[in-house]
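Case study 2.
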Amino acid sequence: MTMRLLTPQKGAMSLRQRLVLQLLALAAVLAVLLYLTVRTVAGQAAETSLDGVLGAAATSVAEQLRSTDDGIEVDLPYSAFSVLGSVSEERVFYRIDAGGATVTGYDDLPRPQVEPSGVEPVFYSVGYRDVQVRVAAVRRVVLTNEAPVAALVMVAQTRLGQADIAARIANSAAARVRVFSRWR
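Prediction:
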């Protein structure tokens, strides 16, 4: 009985090469999934953080509503809008409605689908003037000479800063992962 040794075919990959290739492909897929997960979480964290600033600005404007003989008057607080502009090169829009009519601001800024009912602002995202904006809406009741009037204050901000913050956090995390993986 003669024994023949099997010789690998020309161009065939060895078992080691196939395993290394499969592990590299798996590592690449996991790295992409990790990056996308970090990017999503960073986006949610940035939105939550910026919602706090946006809500504070809307509340600050609502606190300036006053009753006059002619109806409702507001002194727009510069500080509320300067804080929003300091995040990045954002555009800021506002609208104040009282008794169903726009008192001041951009009368085409969309109202919330769900009106705020308590003291907490309602947040929503909407397309406005060819950009995505995040809006905080706050309801206040102003006592006028005739009767209480419900006022709705909406303050909107473009989302460029939020996207920039999320991208920086995700890219920073990816860079740290690369640095740690080189140490091994």
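The longest strand covers residues 131-143.
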